[in-house]
Amino acid sequence: MIPGGVNSPVRAYGAVGGTPRIFVRGEGAQVWDADGNAYVDYVGSWGPLVAGHAHPQVVSAVSEAAAKGLSFGAPTELELQMAELLCRLLPSLEQVRLVSSGTEATMSAIRLARGFTGRNRIVKFEGCYHGHADSLLVKAGSGALTLNQPSSAGVPAEVAANTTVLDYNNAEAVVRAFEEVGSEIAAVIVEPVAGNMNLVLPSPDFLRTLREQCSQRGAVLIFDEVMTAFRVGAQGAQGLYDITPDLTTLGKVIGGGMPVGAFGGRREIMQRLAPLGPVYQAGTLSGNPVALAAGLATLKLTQTAGFFDRLAAATESLADGLQRAAREVGLALSAQAAGGMFGIYFRPAPPRSFAQVMECDIRLFKRFFHAMLKRGFYFAPSAFEAGFVSSAHTAEHVQRTVDAARAVFGELRQP
Ligand code: PMP
Residue 151: what pLDDT? Predict the structure, then answer.
């Protein structure tokens, strides 16, 4: 009935084999499947659930909003609250528009950058995923990578021809591209911490070069923080690396598990959007009040004192514990964290490039995934996805995970 049995490809376990679990309930750090098995969850709906599953404050905000009406297709107070909050929390946002998914956010940001500059070319980086709009489905990460389909059928060659794909963390390639086709480049879009080819941290020099080149050549720098905003820290990756993009795309955490996306940035650019300007963008359910209630309640939780310090400490102790447990049994595994995101790599050191990500031992990852699943720990069903920790994950969850992983790593040493 459903193609591949799923409504988003990575859910199908194509990369790890076996049968996907059907989940019926989540609470805090845990999920339960239809057979009654409990799992400590490190997917967190692929990032949105930074406060864990079904947080009571989020659930009650949603119920309250739902009782007042599901949708109006007209301005509401919650939209204003969300816009004000996002502009306050992310100083690079002078104006913001709300949409319903990360894909809509990036697709609209690209159109806006093209409309603003009057240019067509987009620069992206191999292994970065920015949703499934045509021009961005070129050498993309996440599901596209898992399925081994670097680009998609159905994307016209004419569209892909306007996308230049460069190596992540390669600042020289960026300088060269601007020398060659700088006058054609409308935008550079980047995951400022890459989370769709496992987790790859940017070199500060790489991000700085993007900022400099875009400024010098009049191109729009788009930070795709759909995954990283309110996840790697209070001000996203732009706060962490102290770089101000022209536009930022948002999703995941700002919806707290409900469909919300956003894009925002410099007023001068944002005012080119309809109804003020000529760049069209719209949505029947954009700024939906029930979805925003979940997002606002989640963001409020992240604003409590020390939230991101605690989240980062828990995630760090998980990454550190996993790496140490593997090394105790002589397995060449590395792991690292960025705020509430982590990467586990079946290679001796964390990768700095897409090519290094591809060197990870996928067979070992598959065995790790299934052995952990059997023991009640749910990791992303692909070696190319980052992991997520929530504020509901306690030191006890982390310890149990590391202990189980130690036993699994021992098994992995046997052929
Ligand atoms: N950009 C990034 C960085 C993402 O991680 C994702 C989703 N994983 C998207 C865009 C697309 O968001 P959505 O799935 O909500 O369309």
Answer: 65
Protein residue whose Cα sits closest to atom 12 of ligand 1: 102
With beta carbons less than 8 A apart as the criterion, state whether 231 and 47 touch. Answer: yes
Tokens representing 23 are 């989940």
Task: Give every CB contact of residue 94 below 8 A, 6+ residues apart in sequence.
Answer: 87, 264, 265, 266, 267, 270
3-state secondary structure (DSSP) of residue 291:
helix
Q: What is the pLDDT of residues 243-253, one digit of tens each?
A: 999 999 999 99
Q: Decide whether any atom of ligand 1 lies within 6 Å of the 10 Cβ.
A: no
Confidence at 115, pLDDT banded by 50, 70, 90: very high
Record the tokens describing residue 103, joined without a space.
């894909």
Q: Is the pLDDT of residue 355 over 90?
A: yes
Residue of 103, 285, 286 to test ligand 1 pocket, by largest number of atoms within 8 Å of CB: 103
Q: Is 227 in the pocket of ligand 1 (CB under 6 A)?
A: yes
Distance 406 CA to ligand 1 centre (A): 32
Could you tell me the distance, in angstroms and rounded to a whole number, from the CA of residue 9 to the centre of ligand 1? 13
216-239 burial code (b ≥16 CB/10 A, e <16): ebebbbbbbbbbbbbbbbbbbbbb
Closest ligand 1 atom to 128 CA: 3
Gap from CA of 408 to ligand 1 centroid (Å): 31
Report the candidate in 213, 230, 376, 398 with the shortest Cα–Cα distance to residue 314: 398
Cα 118 to ligand 1 centre (Å): 26
91 within 8 A of 235, measured Cβ to Cβ? yes
Annotated catalytic residue within 252, 345, 366, 378: 252
Give me the DSSP letters along 197-235. SS-BPPPHHHHHHHHHHHHHHTPEEEEE-TTTBTTTBTT
- Answer left, alpha or beta for residue 226, where phi above 0 means left and psi between -120 and 50 means alpha: alpha
pLDDT in tens, 301-322: 999 999 999 999 999 999 999 9
